[in-house]
């Protein structure tokens, strides 16, 4: 513009020189995070925590420096899955995450509370403030991939994270019930509204192996990821019903799992 004074705050015109303000929270000075991946779903109980844990473990086994943020403030599960009992420590300016036995840096509200069984009866703005502090006040160090275990739905926490964290992409977790289309649609539409790419879809509880005959059975019917095609999401993966995984989570030993679940998703994240 010929008469431009480069003061966009006083101008209503749209032009190529207008700068889009960066609304992302500034990371803690002790954090250097290269990739941020959010694991989401339109409803609870579909396996977001398990998916987050397995993706983080895969990345750690692949030699990556990994961190997890447990953003499900009212129902944090990451410390339980990884067997974390000590409280996070810190200084006046920085909180330090708790390290799992394989070297994954983890942060959760339960790691800041003396009584992890105490209910969290907080309103949305307070929870959103804590989510901000998980990024601004926690020093994760040099991290290749940071995974966020999101709460279900499209409320305050997902909105805060999508607007204020430098999220590189999301993984949507579903189950094979009839509501899957509606559930995935909500997550996809929110991601599109926030201009965040959907990297892939994980269908949890898609099958199990019969202990008697060894056949792979589908208790909810044959896997159907037609909704992925509907939205042009090419990358899909699945998790079976595996009692060993459930036992490991209950015992806080998920890092001991044997297998290579979610390899396609893991490789795609590495290659971003």
Report on the structure:
It is a single chain. The chain is built from eight helices and twelve strands. It is of the alpha/beta class. The chain has a single domain, classed as Rossmann fold (3-Layer(aba) Sandwich). The chain has an eight-stranded mixed sheet, with helices on both faces. A two-stranded antiparallel sheet has the order 3-4. A two-stranded antiparallel sheet has the order 10-11. Strand 10 (208-209) and strand 11 (216-217) form a beta hairpin. It is globular.
What's the CATH H-level superfamily name? Answer: P-loop containing nucleotide triphosphate hydrolases
Total number of distinct structural domains:
1
What is the N-to-C order of secondary-structure elements (H for helix, E for strand)?
EHEHEEEEHEHEHEEEHEHH
CATH fold node name: Rossmann fold
Instruction: Please state the CA-atom Rg, rounded to the nearest Å.
Output: 20 Å
CATH architecture: 3-Layer(aba) Sandwich
Question: How far is the N terminus from the C terminus?
Answer: 37 Å
Number of distinct helices: 8
Strand content: 15-25%
Which regions have little confidence, pLDDT < 50, spanning 5+ residues? none
Mean pLDDT: 86
CATH class equals Alpha Beta
């Amino acid at each position: 513009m010929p008469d431009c004074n480069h003061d966009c705050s006083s101008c209503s015109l749209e032009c190529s020189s207008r700068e889009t303000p960066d609304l992302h929270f500034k990371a803690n000075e002790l954090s250097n995070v290269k990739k941020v991946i959010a694991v989401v779903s339109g409803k609870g109980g579909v396996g977001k925590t398990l998916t987050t844990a397995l993706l983080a473990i895969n990345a750690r086994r692949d030699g990556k420096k990994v961190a997890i943020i447990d953003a499900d403030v009212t129902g944090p599960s990451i410390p339980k899955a990884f067997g974390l009992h000590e409280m996070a420590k810190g200084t006046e300016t920085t909180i330090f995450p708790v390290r799992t036995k394989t070297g994954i840096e983890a942060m959760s509200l339960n790691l800041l509370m003396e009584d992890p069984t105490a209910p969290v009866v907080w309103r949305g703005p307070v929870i959103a403030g804590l989510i901000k502090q998980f990024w601004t006040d926690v020093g994760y160090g040099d991290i290749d991939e940071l995974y966020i275990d999101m709460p279900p739905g499209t409320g305050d926490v997902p909105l805060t994270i999508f607007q204020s964290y430098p999220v590189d992409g999301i993984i949507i977790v579903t189950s094979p019930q009839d509501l899957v289309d509606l559930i995935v649609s909500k997550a996809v539409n929110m991601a599109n509204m926030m201009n965040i790419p959907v990297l892939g879809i994980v269908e949890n509880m898609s099958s199990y192996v019969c202990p008697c005959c060894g056949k792979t059975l589908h208790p909810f019917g044959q896997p159907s990821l037609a909704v992925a095609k509907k939205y042009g999401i090419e990358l899909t993966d699945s998790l079976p019903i595996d009692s060993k995984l459930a036992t490991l989570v209950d015992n806080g030993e998920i890092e001991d799992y044997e297998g290579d679940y979610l390899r396609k998703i893991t490789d795609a994240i590495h290659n971003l």
